[in-house]
Amino acid sequence: MTAPLLDRVRGRLADSGDAGSIRASAVADALRAEGVVLGTDGLLPLVAALHDDLRGLGPLQSLIRDAAVTDVLVNAGGDVWVDRGVGLQRVDGLHLAPPEAIRLAQRLAARAGRRIDEATPFVDARMPEGVRLHAVLPPICPRGAVISLRVPRRAFFTFDELVATGTLTPSGADWIDAIVRARLSFLVTGATGSGKTTILGSILGRIQPDQRILIVEDSAELRPDHPHVVTLQARPANLEGAGQVTLRDLVRHALRMRPDRVVVGEVRGAEVVDLLAALNTGHEGGCGTVHANSPGDLPARIEALGLMAGLPRDAVHALAAAGLDVVIHVDRTSVGRRVSGVHVVRADGPFITAVPALAWSANGEVAGPGLADLAARLSARGADVPLSGNVR
User: Fold this and answer.
1) Which of 52, 172, 303, 318 is the most buried (most CB within 10 A)?
2) Does 172 share its domain with 229?
């Protein structure tokens, strides 16, 4: 099957109104009209390929079906890479020619209700199946289209499953459970692709079932195993530049919906001010994720985000010192992702610092200078402190 023939078949399906269902009989009719007759053995794979092309992600669909894949990347040269949790791996035998990659980017953008072309050579959108799309076309990328797909997690892990996979130590599970029960406010930090959202989703599943969780996200990814969850999703402006709903808008609305916990799936802009303000006005136990290479980098990260919202430096740190209690850090290693430690947020003069309380590794559990502070905060909220003889 040549590319021009497939294009003509697509066109006939679209003209006949059968592009949505991709019925085998409709494909056979379109092929006959082009002078091609296929038996069942040849027709069924073609129907599947056309379905992936018109209703799915084209040649990338088989990669998305892999439950281990979290990211699919198409580079300007046409090579395809995937991340299955242990770093990027090149996909052998799959290569997209530059025109094919451009057409794919345009089709995916259209499925997300957006447009990408020479006038608007980039798009950032969420597709109907939940995959987050980012694409850039020439002339921004001179060599060809670059497509990045972030695949939402299909399975959501319990603490027991995280312990079984080595992502979380048994002691770490006990401490994080205590943090949740004590309603300490926390942020999950880590680099891109480290598993912050996965960890946060598992933690939210440990919240008491009689509490109402309000989740605010740019793209709906958090689906915790909890009986009372309300999710609000931001919306970009339409082609006319109207209709935008920002995370800041949603945080303010969430506070009017009687939340027990306010969660910002990914704090990466001015919404940090609204979250910190909520944590300072009686909404205990709120949480979110923040990109940071280490917990020690978090104060500077929060400061930068607060400055984006027009808040003075001292005010950002004052809000964070009064509202934040704990930082839970996730590392990405050569053998997978793991929760590497807990830090306590303290005021150090006019600024905040993240002080190590516990660190977990293959060598065991190591106590830090912030452990006594963490234990005191848990005790003050009536939570049992899970001290163990394993702490060194």
Assistant:
1) 172
2) yes
